Task: structure prediction
Amino acid sequence: MKAMLKIEMDRAFKNRSFYLSLSIGLSIVMAHIVMAVLVKSDNPLKFFGNGLTYPYSVFNSWIGGDSTNPYLAAYTTIFPILATLPFGISYLNDLKKGYIKNIYTRTNRINYCVSKYVATFVMAGIAVVIPMIINLLITSAILPSLLPVTNGIFSIGGGNLWSGMFYMHPYIYVLMYLLVYFIYGGVFASLALVGAFFVDNIFLLTLFPFITYYGLGLVAPYVYKYALIRSINPALILTISQPSGITLFTVIAEALIIGVPCFIIFIWRGVKNDTL
Amino acid sequence: MTHSKMIKIACVVIFIIAGIIWGINFYSINKRLPNAKIFEYSKNNPAVADGLEITPLEKTIYSVDEYKKEFPEDNSYSYLTDEKKEHYLIIVFKVKFKNTTQEVLKFEADSFIIEAFPSAYHNGVLVIEGRAKRTIEPGEEQEVLLESNINDIGLIKTKDLHKIRSNKFCLVFSYYPEKKMLLFD
Result:
């Protein structure tokens, strides 16, 4: 299993699609730096008077903290594609190119399937988190890491998820949210693995997680009224400044409801699938 | 030395240089604009801002019905239905202002933002009786009642609503470079 996982991770890191995904993500976050952060860095005290005003801070200026910027909206819109590109379609490629036959003659099928799932999950997580970390690092190098305050220029309200953490330990809040990004990246990429059993076209398979992601967004308004659930729209869940009510229950449940069946179906169908 | 090894070494060198540049910038910007120093004022240690002494006297948290009984002339919450009342609490602060100068001062009695931790509840305040913009004569003292609502329809999590009484409440009147706040036990 360990050797197989190493081979799959090695293949994933050498995959050009991983770098394509990273390039797209990095283009968006760098555009945000140039258009929205650098202008603030000229004078972080621009709109600061005294009293209840406050200078620009990392936590309302980086891509995840700036609720009004279109760059995060672009990032969260193509999020499932960024997650799927690195390794999500590799299983279908392995099936089509016959690579899987070489593997199955040398190792246990379950080793291959579990390794494929883990590699896909991890690579998707890395691909969606790295651009966000780079944006945060650059922003934190040019704007002060001033603690968020409650005068309204930081969009997290007391009713938002992890709000206490945001105001007291904002870097931990950001790390927790990046963990959500990592998991959601992995979960949506794993949809593409399962989709390979039903879709034979690489283009359609790449879009499969995106369609699911978008579909959840369409259903979301109908369940918003339930206090335990609130928004199930993944694009809103992944908006770090939380413009819409989200609950920890939904964040965890949505990842489990998609991720666990995907894992089970992929392993079960992958082991049973007659490829030889 | 192989080509791939040279690339790896180049990557490590670039990574280290980028890390050093980031570290220097991070340090310098945060040294230039550090986090605010916190000043807490209490009943026995009042704040003084531009000659105006501000003393936090007391805070009380009411249900909507209790608030209506206590302040029958204020009908700010009369629109709430019985069902909605369950989601609301009203907090009232009593603050004393004293003019310590020899001149007439003007001030706004509602220039505060409530903060409560650990729930992270925050909201503005309104003056219950009279005007927010006030004039105060030399040596004069004025007690002002300020109110705000706490609700779990956006301002606070439902689980925190009835635990809010154990929170640490303060009224912030300056955020930077010094965070100044009136503390209410």
In short: Residues 6 and 27 of chain B are 32 Å apart (CA to CA). The radius of gyration of chain B is 24 Å.
